[in-house]
Task: structure prediction
Amino acid sequence: MSQFGTRFFGHEWYRLRMTSSPLIIDNLQYANWSEKIFRQMHEGGVSAVHVTIAYHEQFRETVSNIEAWNRWFELYPELIFQGFTADDVKRAHSEGRTAIIFGFQNPSPMEDDIGLIEVLHRLGARFMQLSYNNQSLLATGCYEAEDPGITRFGKQAIAEMNRVGMVIDMSHSAERSTLEAIEISRRPIAITHANPHVWHPALRNKSHAVLSALTKAGGMLGFSLYPHHLKDGTDCTLESFCQAVADAASAYGAENLGIGSDLCQDQPDSVVEWMRNGRWTKVLDYGEGSASNAGFPDQPEWFSCNLHFGNISEGLSKIGFSSSEVDGIMGGNWLTFYEHAFQPEGA
Amino acid sequence: MSQFGTRFFGHEWYRLRMTSSPLIIDNLQYANWSEKIFRQMHEGGVSAVHVTIAYHEQFRETVSNIEAWNRWFELYPELIFQGFTADDVKRAHSEGRTAIIFGFQNPSPMEDDIGLIEVLHRLGARFMQLSYNNQSLLATGCYEAEDPGITRFGKQAIAEMNRVGMVIDMSHSAERSTLEAIEISRRPIAITHANPHVWHPALRNKSHAVLSALTKAGGMLGFSLYPHHLKDGTDCTLESFCQAVADAASAYGAENLGIGSDLCQDQPDSVVEWMRNGRWTKVLDYGEGSASNAGFPDQPEWFSCNLHFGNISEGLSKIGFSSSEVDGIMGGNWLTFYEHAFQPEGA
Result:
């Protein structure tokens, strides 16, 4: 009983502390999960994290990843729990815990079976990329030479994701496929983790055409803190990052912007190999890296873990955002998006 | 929009009709599901049915069966929806619909993986038999020559089912395994579909020792209407059936009794072959039947479909049950059981 006593005492203490703090949401992380990281989320006041639970995993492998998360939820209930709804995120905020929201960077968990979309939504999946770097059954990835757009299966999958309340994520998809997904989807979509191409012309960053169409349709852009997406990479300054956010806010509206840090904290380099190569190639693909720079790049010193969101909100204030705009970008905008996007259509 | 108009009009009409009708729950059916049967549930005023969605299916096959149900839920929302909680059953009753509650007659869907119990609970599984007729990884079935009791894995599975709120069902299990499951489980268990051995000494019916231990621990017995479980089989009279319920009420308390009809309406005989033989034998096993009587037996004429629950409640009244006892046996007792059994432990 003393364990419960401590836990509830902890909640109460954090509830008092947290309700006066703005709500922070990071809409993409893929860390090497541990109690240390869950404690950092807690101490950093992060109320929700959209976590990647599948890169190339098939359905059954994805379920095994869910089982691993269930074990963490059982072991660390004072720190984390599974989030299914916007209300869960509000509850996490009021209790000083972190709602963990599942998502996939590839449609591999649904295999070739449209019925799995609803099953996976029931299990908590709320974001699914229609393609990772390669062509998928649904759409084209940003590393393909040709982009024929959304496939026949892709159109059916978009309709089904719309119906059940699973968000279409085009972070790693190619230009035409992305524009078509925005057009075809009856509900706003997301680019959970990428930056404007105009700021840093990486292949993974997004064109004005994409960002304009995305946000005009009510979609969200999550700003990435992954060095390959940042101007000057690891040496990117906080000021430069915040200026990029400010420029995007001028172009597309601050209410359509949030954070999707792409934080891969504590991951060994074998994991970035898995992300890039899955089981599809015997010839090593370096993705955004190169043979001489194959591993995870170092994070900028002002954002390396969940304790550092305060640096970003300070930077955004300094660059001239109002306090309500800062609160929106740091979490409020994703929360509003969740409120509409996670429920079945018409609910 | 006219479709919705009709649907809500239908709801309203049935809500008025249904709220004055007692709540009926059938805690086991395995019909050849069709719109016809869903309409019979609706017209028969059945507020919840626990449906078998796996006999010998592995996890992925069970998920495919869930996908088929999801499609029915999408096609017939005015008739059925998935039930996860006792509140869902109350809502079904007030709306004149039927809550469909998933369960397994075998632990095959969880394979050898304890983490799948929580995943399957999330997908809606609320009952799981620890064994069908044979030895399983967890317990012994009633057709085995030896019953060594609950296995090492079985003890872990019981603890996990208790934790997440999945009911242990011992309908097809052997005597010692059943008594041990009742003893080991921290929460009441169920025998969803079987009858007292003293009334009809079939191998599948349950001894006084089992029924006494089951009900003393707060567990439920669902009376079966499957002819092989009935005295005089297809020719069993309604009076004989109701007398068996009355005798059980005297011995174990009316509040621990309900219906689990085992209705296999419209199934072809190939299905009873699957139920009995799965993939485990090349030599045909006839289970409760025989080579000369291998198929599904005919139902008694007073109970052959979901329109006939009124016959049973009338029979129970005639045999001397009070009207509140009849309401309990026809659904109220299962509803009370659901209220406690379907939630995670401590919730």
